[in-house]
Design goal:
4 strands, homodimer, Glutaredoxin
Chain lengths: 192, 192
């Protein structure tokens, strides 16, 4: 059994969302599973001096156009959310409070769809809890243990060098961006 | 006759170099020509708050790995230059001092190869002049007219929203990055 591939993302990241719709099939094609690992881009930005795309002159305007165009190019449903970006701390905590891998991935997919297709503000805790509840899940976003555990996951991601979203690690090889999926596909067949 | 596509780049940009090896063939496939337009990333960074990739924590280390891996993926010769990045003011001036489009593109290709394959420091004016001379070209990098003309080109690029390298504009539609070539290919067939 080959090792799972690590899929790091921020719940508020458009390219993270686009990647989330394709990552499982890409991995499965090569007999791999995926470990979903939400992180907080804001924390990474503190390390790299980065900023949310919409806030950057010139690049921000381009990015908004590129989100939509990339979604059309790949045939992925996408509606630019507003507000954007939002805090994804509650979503992250809800995710990591669940113990089952399958439940985590199920919640993550649903949160992405809620935000990037249905326009539900997943930056608001009640919305996160409602979405989880509709899936029959009962995440905990308030306990100190969950808060600490989430912080530890985010710090572990940073320690792995994760500075953007999506960020995929295959057998130690890092790939940043949905636009590296072709390279990941070849790498999973054979490192080059 | 369809309009040429605009190819903006910085001579010190790895992804600009990778794009330069494929852009003419991509355009020709769709009956288009390419207008090569070197710019100065440093000037764009002043507008966006950006910085050269190698200077950014985490992202810089990743970028160096990605330059090499992307070159291998596409089968493009690449040797990480040192020093990197370098000032490309002299290269830009030499380019814009030439009046013929063909001479410009010929010099640009040769400068990219010199820097990214042969390890010649094109940040040094004498090297730029020597490379041009070997092609039978006699660029002027000292006259005030050329300096002013180059500055005007760089400012015009910024006014068009060019914040990165490579940056390609097809009939008004902007594409940033070598990793958007597939989207450009489809757009040239039919806007989507």
């Amino acid at each position: 059994m080959k090792a799972p591939i690590d899929f790091y993302f921020d719940f508020s990241s458009p390219y993270g969302y686009l990647a989330s719709t394709k990552i499982d099939a890409l991995a499965a094609k090569h007999g791999r599973s995926v470990t979903w690992r939400p992180m907080l881009l804001g924390v990474a930005f503190k390390a790299t001096g980065g900023a949310p795309l919409p806030s950057i002159p010139l690049k921000g305007e381009y990015a908004k156009r590129d989100f939509l165009r990339s979604a059309r190019f790949y045939g992925i449903p996408y509606k630019q959310p507003d507000p954007f970006p939002v805090s994804t701390v509650a979503a992250c905590r809800a995710f990591y409070s669940l113990s089952q891998t399958d439940d985590r991935a199920k919640l993550a997919r649903r949160l992405f769809t809620a935000y990037f297709v249905e326009g539900i503000n997943i930056g608001e805790s009640p919305n996160v809890l409602k979405i989880a509840g509709a899936l029959g899940l009962e995440p905990d976003i308030e306990s100190q243990a969950v808060k600490d555990g989430t912080r530890a996951e985010v710090e572990a991601a940073l320690a792995k060098g994760v500075f953007g979203s999506p960020y995929i690690i295959v057998d130690g090889e890092p790939f940043w961006g949905f636009d590296r999926f072709e390279q990941i596909d070849r790498w999973l067949r054979e490192p080059f």
